[in-house]
Design goal:
- The chain is an alpha/beta fold.
- The protein folds into two domains: 174 residues, 3-Layer(aba) Sandwich (Rossmann fold), CATH 3.40.50.1950; 210 residues, Rossmann fold.
- Strand 7 and strand 8 form a beta hairpin.
- Helix 4 crosses helix 6.
- The two termini are 31 Å apart.
- The protein binds cytidine-5'-triphosphate.
Length: 399
């Protein structure tokens, strides 16, 4: 059932570590390859030998193997796996991975892994309900980490409440669902633009906007996770793409973004224009820093190329072309006019009037407008918004 799939299991120091033996067994029975990383604390609960025997692989517990002086590469382990399942995940490890700490082999592997990360939290009920832990859970969820949610019941502390690790069968099912999820964009090539552009005034100044690129990167991850090959033409952003199926082409200006897009578009089946491209650029870029003179200063701007409009002219019948519209007023009217003037198949509207939507937020609230109608969606994390957009593209491909 999971033949050829590579499962990395991370075990941290919780009493439910003994249940991870059953988890390893379930993956092995499904013909998956399994490797195990244990933290120092996990070894206090169960011997590595148990997992080595069940997984038929050596267990990794440290960066160095004291017996042969070999280095256990966290990068190699993270690249090897199709999924990294941390079960049990203690409150401490959840906090570390939410904050990017890399203080042992497990957390370091987690930080460098490109595969899907999944956690099965296990802790005492008060640690579980603590706002700090809850905040860490939401950070991880927003980043697309999969959860095998903790259950309610008897806890090792003698108390009863939420915090029990999900049963191994449940953890296995969640991972299996991810690993066997439909690769409905397999063989498709997707072009995505993301982030802002920077229009140079002089060597130290530029004109830009508040776009963070989070939405475009979330869309790229969604298509890649469903089998597509993604080319992401990205303006300067802080976010990063994790999937190895995403090729990022870094650009600065609208002109550079245009150049890359016209090169890529003809080979693509789908193109999604989520970048906040500057509409104007300085007519002249000063070669040296502009000095203040005490007088007023005027910068003459000229229009940039409208990338979407140009690609809209090149669009072929079999290509799906999607645009974004960020509006502050007359939202529907403006979005509909862009849908037509840029030859989009549908346009994703977000309004700055909606709280928690658009620039900088981890959530978004969208309306999808096509020639066949309008669909409104609730405010949700950007990775789930990305799923709605990909599902809509899928619908059009099937028509
Ligand atoms: N777009 C683009 N190139 C530009 C400007 C916009 O590719 N130079 C794309 C955006 O990525 C988005 C769509 O066109 O998919 C609409 O962008 P938006 O900024 O909302 O609209 P504009 O056409 O720039 O109109 P205005 O700024 O006047 O609202």
């Amino acid at each position: 059932m999971l033949s050829g799939k590579k499962i990395l299991i991370g075990i941290t120091g919780g009493i439910s570590a003994y249940k991870s033996a059953v988890l390893v067994r379930l993956f092995k029975k499904a013909n998956a390859e399994v490797k195990v990383i244990m933290t120092k604390a996990a070894k206090q609960f169960v011997q590595p030998l148990t997992f080595a025997t069940l997984s038929q692989n050596p267990v990794y517990t440290d960066f160095f193997n004291p017996e042969n002086g070999e280095w256990n590469s966290h990068v190699r382990l993270g690249l090897w796996a199709d999924i990294f399942v941390i079960a049990p995940a203690t409150a401490n490890t959840v906090a570390k991975i939410a904050n990017g700490l890399a203080d042992n082999l497990l957390t370091t592997t987690c930080l460098s892994a490109r595969c899907k990360i999944m956690v099965a939290p296990a802790m005492d009920l008060d640690m579980y309900s603590n706002p700090a832990t809850q905040k860490n859970f939401s950070i991880l969820k927003e980043r697309g980490v999969l959860f095998a949610e903790a259950g309610d019941g008897f806890l090792a502390s003698g108390l009863s409440g939420k915090g029990r690790m999900a049963e191994p069968e449940e953890i296995f099912e969640t991972a299996k669902n991810f690993l066997t999820q439909i690769q409905d964009f397999n063989g498709k090539k997707v072009l995505i633009t993301a982030g802002p552009t920077r229009e140079k005034i002089d060597p130290v100044r530029f004109i830009s906007n508040y776009s963070t690129g989070k939405m475009g990167y979330a869309i790229a991850e969604e298509f890649a996770s469903r089998g597509a090959e993604v080319v992401l033409v990205s303006g300067p952003v802080e976010v990063n793409a994790k999937s190895h199926k995403i090729t990022i082409l870094h650009v600065n200006s609208a002109a550079e973004m245009y150049e890359e897009c016209v090169k890529q578009f003809p080979q693509c089946d789908i193109a999604i224009m989520s970048a906040a491209v500057a509409d104007f650029t300085p007519e002249i870029t000063a070669e040296t820093k502009i000095k203040k003179t005490g007088d007023e200063m005027t910068i003459k701007l000229k229009p940039t190329k409208d990338i979407a409009k140009e690609l809209g002219k090149l669009k072929q019948e079999n290509q799906i072309f999607v645009g974004f519209a960020l509006e502050t007023d007359h939202e529907m009217q403006n979005a509909e006019s862009k849908l037509n003037s840029k030859n989009f198949d549908f346009i994703v509207l977000n309004s700055l009037k909606d709280k928690g939507a658009a620039f900088g937020y981890d959530t978004n609230k969208i309306t999808i407008i096509s020639r066949s109608g309008t669909e409104k969606f609730d405010l949700k994390p950007k990775n789930l918004v990305a799923k709605d957009i990909a599902d809509k593209v899928k619908q059009l491909l099937e028509k």
